[in-house]
């Protein structure tokens, strides 16, 4: 029944508006215990990774979630707990395929750049919901097939917010280093935020993330992104956008039958 409760949000990810979004940069605003940050999501860098992140944002996955790994090189978040009830339950443990590394990353010896976001993983095609900010680039960050950038922090968000996240607990104890005194992922899986609040009270939190209107202005140019890649032109004509594809039509039909006109208008607008 929990999955049925979130079915409208899942079906909305296949609407015509989402299809157009798959080709355009999308801005996400996140509030944290250190302040707000703006993140530009670039589907042209990593289409699958970008779509999964935006789906997770819309399904409230990053609301009230701990920044459990702050080790000086990255800030990792997105791990959750077994009893957490958010719309993202329908996708957050489903792995997605790895995206190819974009040209600029390959030209940079596969290294990720400061301010970019990528997925943590445990092997090829294991990306799901665990994300990290790149704080201090190095030759190891980006070499794994799942470490592909899909977004970047814009403005002064890195210096003003991300650099300020508390890192005194160090890395996960799994890595068995002298400074690895951070949260135990298995305990977090069982206890959730109550474990962090009890054992790691100084850790920062991601409070809420949401998609905002497409950014406008002189700062949003063809070379705005860290990769230096041009934003591709839209291939959707007005007729195509108006009609959508067969998958979108089916999703709208199911929503209309199951949840009525209110959900139909939201999903198919």
Roughly how much helix do the residues carry, as a percent range?
25-40%
Task: Report strand order across the widest sheet.
Answer: 3-9-1-2-8-6-7-5-4
- What do the pLDDT scores average to? 80
Query: What is the molecular shape?
Result: globular
Briefly note the structural class of the backbone.
Answer: alpha+beta
Number of strands: 9
What's this, in brief?
This protein is 29% helix and 15% strand.
Protein described:
The chain is an alpha+beta fold and 269 residues long. The protein is built from 11 helices and 9 strands. The protein has helices spanning 2-5, 7-12, 16-21, 47-58, 103-107, 157-160, 185-191, 193-199, 238-243, 246-259, 261-268; strands at residues 26-32, 35-41, 65-66, 69-70, 74-77, 116-119, 131-134, 151-154, 205-211. Strands 3-9-1-2-8-6-7-5-4 form a 9-stranded antiparallel β-sheet. Helix 10 packs antiparallel against helix 11. The chain is globular. It starts with a helix and ends with a helix. 36% of the residues are buried.
Topology summary:
Elements: H1 2-5, H2 7-12, H3 16-21, E1 26-32, E2 35-41, H4 47-58, E3 65-66, E4 69-70, E5 74-77, H5 103-107, E6 116-119, E7 131-134, E8 151-154, H6 157-160, H7 185-191, H8 193-199, E9 205-211, H9 238-243, H10 246-259, H11 261-268
Antiparallel strand pairs: 1-2, 1-9, 2-8, 3-9, 4-5, 5-7, 6-7, 6-8
Helix pairs in contact: 10-11
């Amino acid at each position: 029944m929990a999955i049925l409760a979130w079915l409208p949000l899942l079906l909305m990810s296949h609407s015509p508006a989402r299809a157009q979004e798959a080709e355009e940069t999308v801005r996400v605003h996140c509030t944290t215990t250190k302040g707000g940050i703006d993140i530009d999501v670039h589907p042209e860098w990593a289409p699958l990774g970008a779509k999964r992140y935006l789906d997770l944002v819309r399904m409230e996955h990053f609301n009230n979630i701990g920044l459990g790994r702050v080790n000086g090189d990255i800030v990792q978040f997105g791990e959750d707990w077994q009893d957490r009830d958010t719309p993202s339950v329908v996708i957050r443990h489903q792995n997605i395929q790895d995206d190819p590394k974009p040209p600029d990353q390959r030209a940079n010896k596969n290294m990720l750049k400061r301010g970019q976001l990528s997925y943590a993983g445990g092997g090829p095609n294991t990306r799901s919901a665990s994300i990290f900010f790149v704080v201090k680039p190095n030759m190891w960050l980006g070499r794994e097939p799942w470490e592909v950038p899909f977004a970047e922090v814009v403005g002064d968000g890195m210096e003003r917010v991300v650099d300020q996240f508390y890192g005194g607990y160090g890395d996960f104890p799994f890595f068995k280093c002298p400074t690895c005194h951070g949260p135990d992922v298995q305990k977090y899986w069982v206890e959730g935020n109550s474990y962090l609040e009890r054992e790691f009270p100084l850790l920062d939190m991601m409070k809420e993330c949401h998609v905002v209107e497409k950014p406008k202005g002189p700062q949003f140019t063809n070379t705005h992104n860290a990769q230096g890649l041009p934003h591709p032109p839209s291939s959707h004509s007005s007729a195509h956008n108006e009609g959508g594809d067969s998958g979108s039509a089916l999703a709208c039909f199911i929503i209309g039958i199951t949840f009525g006109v209110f959900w139909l208008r939201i999903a198919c607008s």
